[in-house]
From TrEMBL:
Family to which this protein belongs: In the N-terminal section; belongs to the purine/pyrimidine phosphoribosyltransferase family. In the C-terminal section; belongs to the OMP decarboxylase family.
Protein's name in the database: Uridine 5'-monophosphate synthase
Active site: D300 (for ompdecase activity), K302 (for ompdecase activity), D305 (for ompdecase activity)
Domain Orotidine 5'-phosphate decarboxylase: 241-459
UniProt keyword terms in alphabetical order: Decarboxylase, Glycosyltransferase, Lyase, Multifunctional enzyme, Pyrimidine biosynthesis, Transferase
GO molecular function: orotate phosphoribosyltransferase activity; orotidine-5'-phosphate decarboxylase activity
Organism ancestry: Eukaryota, Metazoa, Spiralia, Gnathifera, Rotifera
UniProt EC number: 2.4.2.10, 4.1.1.23
UniProt binding sites for substrate: D247, K269, S362, Q423, G443, R444
Pfam families listed in its UniProt record: OMPdecase (PF00215), Pribosyltran (PF00156)
NCBIfam families noted in UniProt: pyrE (TIGR00336), pyrF (TIGR01740)
GO terms (BP aspect): 'de novo' pyrimidine nucleobase biosynthetic process; 'de novo' UMP biosynthetic process
Pathway linked to the protein: Pyrimidine metabolism; UMP biosynthesis via de novo pathway; UMP from orotate: step 2/2; Pyrimidine metabolism; UMP biosynthesis via de novo pathway; UMP from orotate: step 1/2
């Protein structure tokens, strides 16, 4: 009943017009919807807001903020936000040339899930432009709610970009009600219906907007996690997404390699417990090298116990890992207590510390399945102040704050090969371009080469070029 009332009222105030109109797409249409007039009719705006709110609840649309598409939907989005007590943003048609130069007005956080509101969808082009602008700023878009779908292919064009259109009205609903209530005659009805039948698919006149790749530099800006920020900054500054896995037994050799390879890596990964000659003085030398060459130290400790135990393992014992490592990793198997324990131990330091969760393993026949990986991502989201990414084999989340780090990497000649203890290798290009990971971890590919420093540079260049290719640069 509310919908019928809405249609009749829209017709009465002149939002639905019959005649001959040229649409944005160039198409000549016998019907035109001008919902901008709604701004002058508060009672009707209120009705539209109530109907929108009901639709959101009926279709369980989940979101944090609302974005109105200018100009037609600004009043609709504002009305809806007042109704459901959510905050709103909007994307300017052009960035201002003065003042803040914001393209997006209003307050939002990176990764906020945004519901787009528009008045009318025809081809979907306006919504696609809005999606692009929001995604460029790290805002997630999965749903758009429109008052009227002209039934000319808009929802199909938009869903191709991973956004679902929910519509309150369709042109045929409007025609049916107007005919039933004698607002239009049968001839007008037939003519309009015929137009709809032959113009169901207005193509989008611009390139589709895929979920845009964001650069490391932009991700450093977006993330609130200090460890992730620092790592993205180093990666961007040094143009390196290479982590060297320094799996050697002699600390002197490790220090020599760190000094030689340090300029080309963003991370040096240790297995501190495989060193034969561990001592804290040498650890200090490694820390000094990490400062000299601006890389982070990642102790690949793979914590996996109850919170109380991992807390001691992380900060105490012989190795005192928390003192010198920038970040560590943990299996997600033990759940949030384990993460919490590590987090508590990290809190005693002023400088940022962080942890990666192991969401996938590179080795053959490992026991991790899809559900485990998905639950790991959820655990990371719940602790995103401390967990800033994953050890994984492919990209697991669109959240740009999380970094995806992939071990099991060697150049082509060993692609698809495994060592005789189950390690499986893929190439840097596959990991970065196809599997969309951010950082490659290379151990023996560098260590066993004739000239480790030279080989590391090759891995660095290959991985960074693959990343630039992913960004389309
Ligand atoms: P490699 O020499 O490049 O195969 O060494 C890989 C390193 O990454 C090694 O230190 C492993 O302990 C580490 N690793 C891995 O290979 N696979 C995994 O799934 C995880 C860590 Br988690």
């Amino acid at each position: 009943m509310e919908i019928e009332e809405l249609i009749i009222e829209l017709f009465n105030i002149g939002c639905v017009k019959f005649g001959e109109f040229t649409l944005k797409s160039g198409l000549k249409s016998p019907v035109y919807f001008d919902l901008r007039i709604l701004v002058s009719y508060p009672k009707l705006l209120k009705l539209a807001s109530v109907i929108f709110a009901k639709k959101i609840s009926d279709e369980s649309i989940d979101f944090d903020i609302v974005c109105g598409v200018p100009y037609g939907a600004i009043s609709l989005a504002t009305g809806l936000c007042l109704e459901i007590n959510k905050s709103m943003i909007f994307k300017r048609k052009d960035a201002k040339s003065h003042g803040t130069k914001n393209l997006i007005e209003g307050i939002y956080k990176p990764n906020d899930r945004c519901l787009i509101i528009d008045d009318v969808i025809t081809s979907g082009i306006s919504i696609l432009e809005t999606i692009e602008g929001l995604r460029d700023h790290g805002v997630q878009v999965k749903d758009a709610l429109v008052l009227l779908d002209r039934e000319q292919g808009g929802p199909e064009n938009v869903i191709a970009n991973n956004v679902k259109i929910h519509s309150v009205l369709k042109t045929s609903d409007v025609l049916n009600i107007l005919l039933k209530r004698n607002k239009i005659n049968q001839e007008m009805y037939n003519k309009t219906q015929e137009f709809l039948n032959v113009n169901r698919n207005v193509s989008v006149p611009t390139k589709p907007v895929k979920e845009k790749e964001i650069s490391f530099e932009e991700r450093a800006e977006i993330t609130n996690n200090k460890m992730a920020k620092k790592l993205f900054q180093i990666m961007s500054l040094k143009q390196s997404n290479l982590c060297f896995s320094a799996d050697v037994e002699s600390f002197d050799l490790l220090l020599k390699l760190a000094d030689e390879i340090g300029p080309n890596i963003c991370i040096l990964k240790t297995h501190i417990d495989i060193l034969n000659d561990f001592n804290m003085d040498k650890v200090q030398e490694l820390v000094n090298l990490s400062i000299k060459h601006n890389f982070l130290i990642f102790e690949d400790r793979k914590f996996a116990d109850i919170g109380n135990t991992v807390k001691s393992q992380y900060s105490g014992g012989v190795y005192k890992i928390s003192q010198w490592s920038n970040f560590v990793n943990a299996h997600s198997i033990a759940g949030s207590g384990c993460v919490q324990g590590l987090k508590e131990a990290a809190l005693q330091y002023d400088e940022p510390k962080g942890c990666l969760l192991i969401a996938q393993l590179s080795c053959k026949n490992n026991l991790i399945d899809k559900t485990y990986t998905e639950k790991t991502v959820k655990l990371a989201e719940e602790h995103s102040d401390f967990i800033f990414g994953f050890i994984c084999q492919n990209k697991l989340t669109d959240n740009p704050g999380f970094i995806h780090i992939t071990p099991g990497i060697q150049f082509n000649e060993n692609n698809g090969m495994s060592d005789n203890l189950g390690q499986q290798y893929t190439t840097p290009e596959m990991a970065i371009l196809q599997n969309k990971c951010d950082v490659i971890v290379v151990g023996r590919g560098i260590l066993k080469s004739e000239n480790p420093a030279e080989t590391a540079l090759k891995y660095k260049n290959t991985a960074y070029e693959a990343y630039l290719k992913r960004l389309n640069l």
